[in-house]
Write a structure and sequence with these properties.
Length: about 170
């Protein structure tokens, strides 16, 4: 809040950091004279080159503002940009990270089964990724969810979760 308050009055605010669902709505209430946008995928510069995800999302209640931000950040990827509500963008970030954690946990459990039955888990994962229904899934049998992915599972569970998310949260925190 203090960072936003220090910006000039009526300044547009773009947030590209992990935030809880509902954060932008709270900020809009606190600062009704500002336009907010949430970018769930971080814009990074690696070795002097901007990294570009396969698609860009801006969560805002002002479509033109959202598209203007995305066009400035990634003008060459205009076909892969979406402007959605802040709540949808916030949920996309949580859901993506929770899904990645689910894939990691699945790969670990699959690896145990593979080893019990004398199958190479890396070969099984490589073949699974060739199935177009699975695609580029993160199926590294040696992986572990990073702390930020685990935090996202916890956040999703506290949003209301459901049996699968609750089970995943319990499994991850063991």
């Amino acid at each position: 809040k203090s960072t936003i308050a220090n910006h000039p009055e009526h300044a547009d605010i773009v947030i590209s950091s992990q935030i809880l669902v509902g954060t932008i709505a709270k900020l809009e209430t606190l600062f009704p004279d500002r336009r907010f946008a949430y970018l769930p995928e971080n814009y990074r510069v690696i070795n002097g080159n901007p990294s570009h995800p396969e698609y860009w999302i801006a969560g805002t209640r002002h479509r033109t503002f959202g598209f203007n931000i995305l066009n400035r950040l990634c003008p060459e990827t205009h076909l892969n940009t979406w402007v959605i509500t802040p709540e949808e963008a916030e949920m996309v970030k949580h859901a993506t990270n929770t899904f990645l954690t689910l894939q990691i946990q699945f790969a670990k459990e699959l690896a145990v089964l593979c080893k019990q039955h004398h199958a190479d888990p890396k070969e099984v994962a490589a073949v699974l990724r060739r199935d177009p229904r699975i695609g580029k899934a993160y199926l590294n049998p040696d992986g572990d969810p990073s702390p930020h992915l685990l935090r996202e599972v916890h956040n999703m569970a506290h949003l209301g979760g459901g049996p699968l998310i609750d089970l995943l949260e319990n499994q991850c925190w063991q």
